[in-house]
Write a structure and sequence with these properties.
The chain has 334 residues and is an alpha/beta fold. It has helices spanning 4-11, 15-23, 30-43, 49-55, 72-87, 101-113, 129-137, 161-173, 189-205, 221-232, 246-258, 292-307, and strands spanning 61-66, 91-96, 118-121, 142-145, 154-158, 179-184, 214-216, 240-243, 268-272, 286-289, 317-320, 323-325.
């Protein structure tokens, strides 16, 4: 295997000059740079990233813990994180917590043992927040992503309450009074915030809250489906349903299909976070779409600022604005 000394001999320069060319740590004349780059290609030299990281007391890696990377929003966030990390020359170590506090704690432990330079975490519903706080106390920069609160750390997410409030007001303006909410697990901060938007909108419209129309539970599609069947079978069923997530939306639509119901003929429907290529659905589904890729990229940029020390102020909270697209499922024209 070629060494940096082999490259230096072939290029006729010092090893320090080779290092400056490879790492971009000092300006080098174009002619010299060209000779070094040709020597690197000719010898097949590859720098020892581990040794370099050890000299800098860095591992050039960050940890990313998500509850379920298969969910469209989390997958887009992961891509945003990876893009920024790649540009910065960092490796992303991904862990799925599966909405399990113990798996999350184990992932934290493993990534801390690997001495990652920083962590991005979407905490589970009943997260051991003290474990996250302990990592922060040990000096590892942490940014919460999507699910905010509970730990004194930087955090990046989306506005949740106002968009759902707007959705419900839209349905009220279309004449709906019995509006159900597939809320999911309200121990998840984002889902709790979305339920708050629903409750605020009903209050502002002078509509009494009917707890029988608020479906909670695990938030998984199968659990939501079972619970929604009972709601849709009520003697006075809802004329509109709002889902708080992609999983709960799938559960609502599965329940409706099993009962032979369709939207918007039997009930109006809207969801926060939709499905990939939701504009191809017929009828089109009214959806609140969060800028998930941008959330991941912004969180990674914030983490990088903490790692390199360019940001030393108190923890920051960044909330990005989602976009509401009204389609036929809520009774709007195509």
């Amino acid at each position: 295997m070629a060494t940096i000394s082999d490259v230096a001999r072939m290029a006729g320069v010092s090893t320090s000059t080779v290092s400056h060319v490879i790492n971009g740590t000092r300006p080098v004349r174009d002619e010299t740079r060209t000779r070094v780059e040709e020597a690197v290609r000719s010898t097949g030299y590859r720098r020892d990233g581990l040794a370099r990281a050890m000299r800098r007391s860095r591992t050039d890696s960050i940890g990313l813990i998500l509850t379920d990377v298969s969910e469209p929003a989390f997958a887009a966030m992961a891509r945003g994180v990876e893009r920024e990390a790649m540009d910065a020359g960092l490796t992303v170590l991904l862990a799925n917590s599966g909405e399990d506090p113990e798996l999350e704690a184990r992932a934290l432990e493993v990534l801390a043992e690997r001495r990652v330079d920083g962590l991005l975490i979407a905490p589970v519903a009943r997260s051991h927040r003290e474990a996250i706080a302990a990592v922060i106390d040990q000096g590892t920069p942490v940014v919460l992503i999507d699910r905010l609160g509970g730990v004194r750390a930087d955090q990046v997410g989306v506005e949740n309450t106002a968009p759902v409030r707007e959705l419900v007001h839209h349905l009220v303006e279309h004449g709906h009074r019995r509006i159900a909410l597939a809320a999911g697990d309200i121990d998840v901060p984002t889902l709790a915030e979305r339920r708050r938007g629903y409750l605020e909108a009903l209050g502002e419209a002078g509509i009494a809250v009917d707890d029988a129309l608020v479906v909670t539970g695990s938030g998984r599609a199968d659990d939501t489906r079972e619970r929604m069947v009972g709601v849709l079978r009520q003697s006075e069923p809802p004329s509109a349903v709002v889902a708080a997530s992609t999983e709960t939306a799938a559960g609502v639509l599965e329940a409706a299909k099993g009962l032979g119901l369709t939207t918007p003929d039997d009930f109006a429907f809207a969801t926060f976070d939709g499905f990939p290529h939701s504009d191809l659905f017929r009828p089109g589904i009214t959806t609140v779409t969060q800028p998930a890729h941008e959330i991941g990229a912004t969180a990674m940029e914030l983490l990088l600022s903490r790692i390199d020390g360019s940001l030393t102020s108190r923890p920051r909270t960044v909330r990005l604005e989602p976009e509401i697209t009204y389609r036929e499922s809520c009774g709007c024209p195509a």
